[in-house]
Amino acid sequence: MIVYNAEIYSMTEDMHFYGYVEVQDGKITAVEQGKPKTVSEGDIDAKGGRLLPGFIDAHTHLGIIEDGMDFEGDDCNEVSDPFTPQLRALDGIDPYDRCFAEARAQGVTSVMVSPGSANACGGEMLLMKTSGRCVDEMAIAACGMKFALGENPKATYNSRDEAPVTRMAIAALIREGLQKAKLYSERLQRFEEHPDEEETPEFDAKCEALLPLLEGDQKAHFHCHRADDICTAVRIAKEFGLECVIVHGTGAHMAAELFGEWGLSVIVGPVIGSRSKPELREMELQNAAILHEHGVKIAICTDHPEVPIQYLPLSAALAVKGGLPEETALRAITADAADILGVSDRIGRIAVGLDADMVLFDGDPLDVMQSPVWVMIGGKIVTG
């Protein structure tokens, strides 16, 4: 299949040109300028529209907090234990939540779904497509472990009269869990090297779940709003050799120059909302722009259902209003989001070898009045 007569925003080095895209078996097999030599009945005329990679929301609770449901549909926070790396978002997501359809309708083709931020460690996150019959077939990768610092764990466990109720205790709990997993990994390695001399370590679900993180196969996603909490996240990540991603970063602009020097990545959002709790008091529309100006790599998220998933393009547009360059805003919900999540070999750009996730607009994709002409996931039109 060929999508032709398109104004292609590939999000690669050759970002903007008129051309066509060939798709086969759900993958992009060619991206070329100009017109194809021939077109067939099954090919798609883009009619001069703007063709972009499918949008990526890098941090949501889509399907794990179900739309219109109360306790029965909320599987986001397991507050019986403040440290739960063994939990997997995969097991709590309802792919039939109507908000998946609302995501697709506005061009969001991939989402990172995360356990909540009530726990110091909430569990394993899941990056997935927004179209499918079963979470397993929608999954792209379990590429992140969710940690949380600050107000949310403090408030959750203070109300239960349990630890942790201070920032010190939250950080200590995370360090303890990571150190146990590190020692567990070392025991496993010794057993593998000397099976006749060493005993098999007793299985530990929490430690097992943290091994991909310690081995560098997953990133540590830290829920942080305040700049001081971001510093704590980086401190812990350095101690254990983790690749760190900051989620929310509401007050990150307070130390943007420092975070740029550190080479941090921040998933900014929600952009839409009020300063509804103490940690949001530094909320500014210019946050993403200031971080970008100081060399911080950013993605933009909705934190659905905090902001409904369909307002991801609107969130990017508001970041532009706050001073973020428009191209950077588009990259923040496509290529840069994929880079931060570690999946640029699958999604985020219109390039050969990547999944054929694309969205066509007949106007400015960040215009609030615009909706996609059609949305493609894995080479199949899913809306339009």
Radius of gyration over all CA atoms, rounded: 21 Å
Number of strands: 16
- Low-confidence segments, given as residue ranges, are none
Secondary structure: helix percent: 25-40%
Question: Given the structure, what is the number of helices?
Answer: 11
- Broad structural category: alpha/beta
Strand composition percent: 15-25%
CATH superfamily of the largest domain: Metal-dependent hydrolases
Give the tally of structural domains. 2
* CATH fold label of the largest domain: TIM Barrel
The outline comes out as globular
| N-to-C series of helices and strands | EEEEEEHEEHEHHHEHEHEHEHHHEEE
Instruction: Outline the biggest β-sheet.
Output: 8 strands, mixed
What key phrases describe this protein's structure?
single chain, 384 residues, Urease, subunit C, domain 1, TIM Barrel, 2 domains, 8-stranded mixed beta sheet
Can you offer a commentary on this structure?
- Helix 4 runs parallel beside helix 6 (227-240).
- The protein is of the alpha/beta class.
- The protein folds into two domains: 1-54 and 348-384, Urease, subunit C, domain 1; 55-174 and 215-339, TIM Barrel (Alpha-Beta Barrel).
- It is built from eleven helices and 16 strands.
- Strands 1, 2, 3, 4, 5, 14, 15 and 16 form an eight-stranded mixed sheet that branches.
- The protein has helices spanning 98-105, 135-138, 151-158, 167-193, 205-214, 227-240, 256-262, 287-293, 312-321, 326-332, 335-341; strands at residues 2-9, 16-24, 27-33, 44-45, 50-53, 55-60, 108-113, 121-129, 139-148, 219-224, 244-248, 265-268, 297-300, 358-361, 374-377, 380-383.
- It starts with a strand and ends with a strand.
